Amino acid sequence: xxxxxxxxxxxxxxxxxxxxxxxxxxxxxxxxxxxxxxxxxxxxxxxxxxxxxxxxxxxxxxxxxxxxxxxxxxxxxxxxxxxxxxxxxxxxxxxxxxxxxxxxxxxxxxxxxxxxxxxxxxxxxxxxxxxxxxxxxxxxxxxxxxxxxxxxxxxxxxxxxxxxxxxxxxxxxxxxxxxxxxxxxxxxxxxxxxxxxxxxxxxxxxxxxxxxxxxxxxxxxxxxxxxxxxxxxxxxxxxxxxxxxxxxxxxxxxxxxxxxx
Length: 261
Known about the structure:
five-stranded parallel β-sheet, 40% helix, Rossmann fold
């Protein structure tokens, strides 16, 4: 990968020496230089480097001040300074390396190679994260399409009404039938809750009681009540009791979500 390097140092001779060192390293493009914090901030915004060779003590601030002003993601940073007492603070600022002046060309080459490895690893992590996000988006879209395709026809006052699975907030058992609750009203549907549970996508719906199924994304919280009872709170204000035989699965899912988040 190509490294786009920006040299930041208040001493012109130090900048030139760093530029000569970078010119001897394959795959490195010098995108600019700066002699103080203000110039550096402007150069970073203009050239978008992925590597900074950064002095610590400079006019109108320190190298640490510059880092505080930068947003994420940070470029890779190599501190180049005459003062070794800043080493601990430098690595706390997520520096790739810390090079003392006077700079040896071999030492700069070593630091740049370390930065290259870090940038490659970060790029791979970013690509993996982007791929995972794309896959999650596609899966969610497939679920939405499946829900729109799954419909229920209910009869009311001589009319038949179509309800898509995506319109359902929750469902409760009502004798041998099921009552489907949508945002606007509820409907009596001539099918058992167990039969509906087999038809509904478990990625979108969760059974919390032998008499209740809830759409997952409508649950805002679970509330503990008297005698260790558990209640699901929905975003429309409804409260649905969780049956004891379903609590273990609910708790397991919550732990997995907390670990992933």
